[in-house]
Specification:
2 domains, alpha+beta, elongated, 3-stranded antiparallel sheet, 7-stranded antiparallel sheet
Length: 196
């Protein structure tokens, strides 16, 4: 009888070690590969547009870095928790966004995100968004979401409206928005009136 109890105890320990090893492997597999943050440089789109108007060149180019800064600023403003100096934002129940980077690929945007689930489990997510212009916002519509190479339900993401702080409509109006690789080109129609 004692041998059976020893064998059962040994089997129980082996199963616990296997489960612990599997959990450790899973956590290390989903952990972020690169350090990302939500820091951004302030960008004044309104000032860029006014400089463009002065040059009478009716187009504005927003680089991939500009788009990164605009989206990060929007996310930090939208999900601000009020915690001074916090480098992450809570984007859903039990999920905080620790960092992100965004890549432009013509009419889509690839988001690389580092998140922490339940304050303990770090993970790297990748999302794909389609890009649209709906004045005065660039609209990011979720198309796919994955945890490493495992697809997740896209309904876990929400549509994001990133506002462009354009000047008043009496100076310029957006004629067209071109989503290109590594940049977004905004083509304007100038509304200049000569007053005598």
């Amino acid at each position: 009888m004692g041998r059976i109890i020893k064998r059962l105890l040994l089997l129980f320990i082996v199963i616990l070690l296997l489960l612990g090893g599997a959990a450790w492997w899973m956590l290390s597999y989903i952990a972020p590969d690169e350090q990302l943050d939500l820091s951004y440089e302030p960008i004044d789109v309104n000032e860029k547009v006014l400089a463009m108007v002065k040059k009478l060149k009716p187009e504005l180019v927003l680089t991939e870095a500009d788009i990164n800064d605009l989206i990060k600023r929007h996310l930090k403003e939208k999900y601000a928790s009020g915690e001074a100096g916090s480098s992450s934002v809570v984007i859903a129940q039990d999920t905080q966004l620790d960092g992100a980077s965004f890549e432009l690929e013509e009419k889509k945007l690839i988001a690389h995100m580092n998140v922490t689930y339940m304050g303990r489990i770090p993970a790297a997510l990748e999302a794909e968004y389609s890009l649209e212009w709906q004045s005065p916002n660039i609209v990011l519509r979720p198309q796919s979401l994955s945890l490493k190479n495992t697809s997740l339900p896209v309904n876990m993401l929400e549509t994001i409206n990133v506002p462009l702080d354009l000047p008043a409509q009496d100076i310029v109006t957006v004629r067209d928005m071109q989503f290109l690789k590594d940049q977004i080109k905004v083509l304007f129609k100038l509304q200049l009136e000569l007053r005598l």
